[in-house]
Design a protein that fits this description.
Largest sheet: 7 strands, parallel
Distance between the termini: 18 Å
Structural class: alpha/beta
CATH superfamily of the largest domain: Glycogen Phosphorylase B
Number of strands: 13
Strand order of the largest sheet: 3-2-1-4-5-6-7
Order of helices and strands: EHEHEHEHEHEEHEHEHEHEHEHEHHH
Low-confidence stretches: none
Number of helices: 14
CATH architecture of the largest domain: 3-Layer(aba) Sandwich
CATH topology of the largest domain: Rossmann fold
Radius of gyration: 21 Å
Number of domains: 2
CATH class of the largest domain: Alpha Beta
Strand content: 15-25%
């Protein structure tokens, strides 16, 4: 039995890749014992108790980039966490540590390396997080969700950098047909359909732009909407629901049926969402969250737009008119849509979890 530490969390975008890689490693080698190290304040405090793997949650404070004065307690909490990680390494004897980002990953991976534990990193974004940038010279492998991230790294001589993509739940094979998917959702199979997603909590600015487009009659005639508002803002927009034309939902789980029905997607630019859009080959209008750490969503969106797979619409410009204009322009140009779909598929890594897991197992095997 080989114990592997997984350090990452704070948000689902950091935790879910760790869970996907751990699951894939166990499928490939049942002797692997994942052990998760996360933060008390992160999403992992709710998710990990529902999973079968052992875990420990540490009392580390996040790094506040804008409200810098709130970092006053960070040094003391960092010291306590690093000391606790040292004890965990002594107690669990991990053969490897896998870091997937978030404010806990850095100190856990750093301390494990100091104690002789080999390390692997998985970086989701086009602009790498601080932990990946600082630890790039000291790890065995770095797995990139975006190939553009390579330009911002200075890996060590013994560090293998791999363009393996972000681990997601892949689309079913074969993919559902769009006509049938629309029919199942009660939509007209002959009409174009736009899917709006802003994450589990929603994106207020995106929702307001969609609301303005709907209220103002700005969308092209006949366009149907599948609109995930997020739980926090659902009550504000639920009255826009029109059966057979505008489906307003707080959250789409599973989201596969909505992806299958969509002709175009309006979305934030989180790394995992982009990985899903590419795997499904969906043209997108991306409205990156301007307050995302280190502007990583804007960097993600720019990378996808530069490859021809998406349109970038910055939040400051995301009016109802602008949003409707982009959606209408795409839906009226089938050749452009086909090119964007092909570009998205060209960046897709639907089997990323298994590929990453197989490479990580090589490190464990010493090859």
């Amino acid at each position: 039995m080989s114990t592997v530490f997984f350090a990452g969390g704070g948000t689902g975008g950091h935790l879910m890749p760790a869970l996907a890689i751990a699951d894939a490693m166990v499928r490939l080698d049942p002797s692997i014992r994942p052990f998760f190290v996360g933060g008390l304040r992160g999403v992992e405090s709710n998710v990990l108790p529902q999973r079968p793997w052992p875990y420990e949650l540490l009392p580390l404070e996040p790094l506040y980039r804008r409200q810098w004065w709130m970092n006053v307690t960070l040094p003391s909490s960092l010291f306590r966490v690093v000391r606790r990680v040292g004890r965990l390494v002594a107690e669990e004897s991990p053969a490897l540590v896998v870091g997937t980002g978030g404010y806990v990953a850095g100190p856990v991976v750093w301390k494990a390396i100091r104690l002789g534990v080999p390390a692997v990193l998985q970086e989701q974004n086009a602009f790498p997080g601080i932990a990946t940038r600082r630890l790039a010279r000291q790890v065995r492998q770095i797995h990139l969700g975006f190939p553009e991230a390579r330009n911002h790294l200075a890996p060590g001589a013994g560090t293998e950098v791999l363009d393996t993509g972000n681990p997601i739940l892949p689309p079913p094979d074969p993919m559902p047909g769009r006509v049938e998917a629309k029919r199942k959702l009660g939509l007209d199979p002959a009409k174009p359909t736009a899917l709006v997603v802003g994450g589990s909590q929603g994106a207020l600015a995106v929702n307001q732009a969609v609301d303005a487009a709907v209220c103002g009659g700005l969308l092209p005639s006949g366009v149907q909407l599948i609109w995930q508002t997020g739980a926090a803002t659902y009550d504000k927009f639920s009255h826009r629901d029109i059966p057979g034309l505008i489906l307003v939902r707080p959250f789409l789980d599973p989201i596969a049926e909505a992806y299958a029905a969509a002709d175009v997607v309006v979305s934030r630019a989180g790394a995992m969402t982009i990985a899903e859009l590419c795997a499904w080959g969906l043209p997108a209008v991306l409205v990156p969250l301007p307050t995302a750490a280190a502007g990583h969503q804007l960097t993600n969106a720019k990378a996808l737009a530069a490859s021809g797979a998406a349109v970038l619409l910055e939040q400051r410009d995301a009016t109802g008119e602008a949003l409707a204009g982009h959606v209408g322009s795409l839906l009226s140009d089938s050749a452009r849509m086909a090119g964007m779909s092909a570009a998205a598929r060209g960046r897709a890594h639907p089997d990323a979890a298994e590929v990453i897991a197989s490479h990580v197992l090589r490190v464990l095997a010493g090859t």
